[in-house]
Amino acid sequence: MKSVLIIGMGRMGRHLAKKMQELGNEVMVVDKDASIIEGMSETYTDSHIGDCTNASVIRALGVSNFDVCFVTIGEDFQSSLVVTSLLKQYGAKQVVAKAKQAIQMDLLKKIGADEVVCPDWDIAEKLAVRYNARNIFDFVPLTAEYSIYEIPVLKSWVGKTIQEQDIRRKYSINIIAVKHNAELRPIPGADYVFDADDHIIVIGKSSDVFKIASKT
Question: Would you identify the CATH topology of the domain 3-117?
Fold first, then answer.
C-alpha cells in the first residue's frame, strides 16, 4: 500500500484517484474548487480544498510524507509548473505530472518532475499501433524498439506445443502469457498446446510482432 497525493480533480485526476483507491492505496485528493471536493468528500475522507500554487498550502499538506504526488491539473499549465516546482521544493519523493504538448513535457522535467505523462499521446500511439497492423489487440510500449503485444496464434500453431514451434528462435519473440477464453495463463510451459481461440501476450520488437500478426 502506498500513500498518494493527487492534485487536480479533472477527468484524469478523478479516474486516477478511483483506481488508486481500488488498489488499496491511501489517497488524498486536492482541488481549489470547493464544489468538486464537497462532491468527493464521502468517497475520499482525506480530501482538501486548496490552491496548490500557494506555497503555504503545499507545506500544510506534508508532501514529503507521500510515496508519490500526481499533478493532474487540466488546462492551466502555468499552475502545473508552479505546483510541480513547489512539490519538489517541499520534499516530495516522486512527482508525476500531466502534460499535453512536447514543450510542456520538457519544461515539467526541467523544474523537477520525476515523470511526465501525456494521456492524449499515449492513446494516439495505442490506436495507431492497433490499426496499423492486423490483429493487434493491445500493446504496452517498453522502449523505442520493444513492446508487449496481445496477438492471436497462427493457424499453423494450433494443436502444437510452444516447444514444437520453437517460437523464440523462429519468430524472435518471447511468450509471457496465454489468454484463453478471458482466462490468463502466465508463463506457459514449453509443453503448452495452442488452441485456435488463444491469444498470446508476447514481448518483442514491433517489426517481428507485426510479421506474425500479418499472417493471422
Answer: Rossmann fold (3.40.50)
